[in-house]
Structures are given as C-alpha cells and as structure tokens.
Write a structure and sequence with these properties.
Elements (H helix, E strand, L loop, with lengths): L9 E4 L2 E4 L10 E2 L4 E2 L1 H11 L48 H15 L20 H17 L50 E3 L2 E3 L16 H10 L31 H10 L4 H12 L26 H27 L4 H12 L20 H11 L25 H16 L3 E3 L5 E3 L6 E2 L8 E2 L2 E7 L2 E9 L6 H18 L5 H25 L5 E9 L5 E7 L2 E4 L2 E3 L7
Antiparallel strand pairs: 1-2, 3-4, 5-6, 7-8, 9-10, 11-12, 13-14, 14-15, 15-16
Helix pairs in contact: 2-3, 2-9, 5-11, 6-7, 7-10, 7-12, 10-11, 10-12, 11-12
Amino acid sequence: MATNGDTERIFRVGTDDVRGLGSFHKTLPHREPYGEVDTNAFETLVKATGGNEAFANVPKGTADAAALVNPQAGLAHDHLSRHPVAFDMPPAPTLRSLTTAAEMTELYWMAVLRDLSLDGFAAKDGVQAEDGVQTAASEISEKFALAVADIHDLGHLRPGVDVPGSATTLSTITRQNIFRLGLPGEEVGPMVSQFFIRDVNFGTQTINQKQRPYKRDANYLTNFSQWLHAQNSGNGDDGKAYSDANVAKEGYYEAESCSRYIATMRDLARFVNKDALHQAYFNATLLLLSGKANWTPGNPYNTTLKSREAGFGTLGGPHILALVSEVATRALKIVWNQKWQVNLRLRPEAYGGLVHVQEIGLDPDGRRPYELPEWVATTLGAKSVRELNNKHGNDTLLLPMAFTSGSPAHPAYGAGHATVAGACVTVLKAFFKTYDITATGEVTPLSIKTLEEKTYPYAKATQFATYITGVDSKDCAGYRTEIDGADMTIEGELNKLASNVAMGRSMGGVHWRTDNTRSLMLGEAISAQILADITMDLVERPKFEFRSFSRKEDGNPKMVKIEQGRIMVDGVLVDSHISAI
C-alpha cells in the first residue's frame, strides 16, 4: 500500500538526523527538551506494527504510560468482510506539506471558535458579525487553495473529496460551509444534523439526546511541560488516559442544569469523545423507522412482495438496526490496519509542538528548524491561538485540546469515527429511499419533511420539525428554535450526520480533515462490499442504490448501484476494496 514515506524518512533538523518526526509516537519516550521521539523506541514500534515483535517490547515514556489502543486489530480476519489488507486509502499528506499546514490552520480556528453558538455561523440579514468566523473562512479558503494546488504531494487536498466543491474546483469557504465537508446536501441548513437534536423513540423508552456540556473556555495541553508529559505518558495532568478524559472532576463540566442539545463545536467534540461509536446512526435508524421512511425501491418487500409479506430479520427493521452495528465493527478492523500497519500518521497535537518549537522555541534552548511552511505559525488563526493560550499564562502555539489527555494512543490516519460514520450512513442511504428519479434520469432528493414524528404512540403524527440550536453567552442551558427547513433533505441530513461525527473529532483537536474525508469514503467502500454480499446471501435478491460522498466534475455525486454481488458506479463495474466509489 502507498504511504507518504514519513515513517521511513530521516528528517534533517539542523545538524541532527531525526526519525519518527512525522509519525505517531504518543506514550513513547521523548528526548528533552524539544519532545522529539526517541529513535530506538520509534523503530521498535515500527517493527512491532508489522507483526514481527511483541508490542510489549515497545518502550514506555513513563512507568504509567497509557496502553497503545488495539494495534493488532488490523491484523484480524473477518469472514463477513474482506481482510483489512484488501482495502486501501490514498497516502496521507506529508509532515512538511502545504496540506498539513492548511489543515492545522483550520484546527487552530476550530479551537478559537470552539465555544461559539452554532446558530451564529450563518450570516444574518447581511450583517457582518464580528466573531471571527468570516476571518477564519477567508484565511482557511486561501490556505486550502494552496494545498489543492500542491500536486507534488500525493496526499494533497482534493476538491470533491476533502473540501467543498466539485472534483475539479474548490468552493470558496464561507460562513455557511466552514468546517463542513461539502457532501451532497450537507451544506444546507444548520451545521448540526437534524438527527442529533430531537428525542428518539427506543421501543417503550425515550432517548433524550441532550447532554451536559464540557466547561466553556476549558482547553488542555497548552503548557509545553504538560504537553510533553502527555506525549510521554498519554495521560493528562489528572493521570487519566483518553478513555477517561474529562471525567476526574465535576469542574470539567458546566452546571447540571445546563443540559442541552448540541449547540457548539465543543458540544459536538464532547459527543464524539464518549459516544458508543455507532450510536448516532442507531438513533438515526430509529428516527427513520418511526418517521415512516420508505424502504429503497430495490427492497422486494416494498414492491413485488408487499401485498402479502413484510421484511423483518431480512430487509426489515431488525435487519437494518443490527447492520449499523455489524458494519461498524468491520470498519474498525479495516481502518485500524491503515492506522497501525500502513500510515502511522502523527496527531495534530504533536504537530502543534513542532510549530511551537520552530516559531517560538524553548528558553534557553532556542528554536528548531523543522522546515514546516513558515506561514503556519503566522496565520491569523495561529496568532489567535497564541492569544488564547496567553490568557492562561502560556505563550505557546500548541493546539488547545478539548480533552484533558489530548489525543488517544493510536495514529491519526485513517479515523475510526469517520470510517464508522461512512459505513453506517452508507447502509442507511442504501436501505431507505432518499430520492426520486424522473423518467429522464434527474435525481430529486426527498425532503426531510417527508418524515413524521409523534410525541406518543397514540398521538397524531406531525411533519418532521426542523431546528437550529444555540447557546447564549450568559446562559449555558442552550436553546432550540424551529426553522423552515423546506430545502433540507433526508440524504443531506444523513450526510451531515456523518460529517458532524467526523469533523467533531477535529473540533476536539484529535484529527486532521483528510483523516476524516478519506475515512468516510473507506467506510463507504466497506459497506458497499457488505451490501453486495447481502444481495447474494438473501433469497429475496434485493437491489441497493445510493449516491456517493465524493463529487464529480459537475459537482454531483456518483450513483452507486449494487445487484447480484456487483457494484456499479455510474454504470461502471468496480472493485470496492480500492475505494473506487
């Protein structure tokens, strides 16, 4: 499999040769004072990932260092899917690339705007709000354009895949599409999916989707000594690893009375910090089922068998509810192979350490020439982060993290949450009808308003309401306001759900944009293969179709049709293992 070469690369830093600079190395020993990974420890890790050496031999940065998260999962076989090595991803952007610097610019701005009310992102009646969003959008747009044009880096940003736009043209980043991916229908309406901001009927119980938020303005690992401790141990100052981040004390949270629907980027980061991984899509499935969403026309129980039979364990409610769990576990195994056995990409917090040492340096040891693009430390986003960190007495360019321990102890590329999001949302789009097709082949996505909802089983059904959420700077309880939503679609809100979860990880500081976008499409390919197997396993011989996450030159997504074990993309037979969708 193709990689960006950073794992094998020897980086020349001044008069020193350093290996592992651009790769994952959290919980390994790091050399003082700069926090560069110990070469011997890194080489032991690389050998272990190939299955040649026990992971127990990988040195720890501290005696209580957090455990490496599941590095052998990507070596597992699975009879319900292809072996993980059968799937592929494009190379990640290189450490010194313009793309990584552009992605860091976006992450800096996410950290600065983390507590902004989500309803504040949209422009209101032509009034320019002085909240930093437009400044961020303009700067990110400029840096994304540089990254898209940097074709010498095989992992560079790609329009129609990584950023809004068609396959050939990058869309301007605006207040409306900032921190979104450009997926079909995702840019319409509020930033947060409608599937996130309502209660869910779960049998006789009700799932309340409100959550107690993390404390606003609470950012972690902005002090260099704390940052270095986290790189060595994988733990925050409270001694907790990522799995127990933000749980040690009540002070990490707003007051209990502040329970609210997701209303800020920090809230979204909070959800993906503690979710059950397939949770958002299980809830969405319940909402689609209770909302009387139609099955895909390729489901025989919606056509030829409808008069006398109904789907249940196959092609019915129990099938799709189980399937969003089944594809999730396969997606994790496959993306974990990409993480550990292929890419070993470093986390954004580690890159933030490099930016800090290159630009500001350590007193009295000075700066180190890592050859990162010089502008990554001088953007308005970087300057805003430095100001934010200085408010807490830390003159650093370290990325402010939403979680006490920073990132988890596994590599960045691909992203587990995003791969699961891509896989789960793909099966939902395949099982449920999300658009009409005219006789001339024109696709019309179905409005979210075609769904219904009830407060109680015996209550009169009402049209699916659409909302925007927010929080007042003086009141942490938050609010939810009903809006028109006539232009919002089922497909768009499902794509938005996938984008929310994927980018929610970036909003917490733990993933790069390209980790998310390529992993969504990896998940899409995984589910396409599983759906192809279903068309052969079931005697009903169903057909599935959905529109891809990626966009073509005309800006439209590709049409994927699956029948008799074959996957056709815009009429062309493909092999899903190379993410050809």
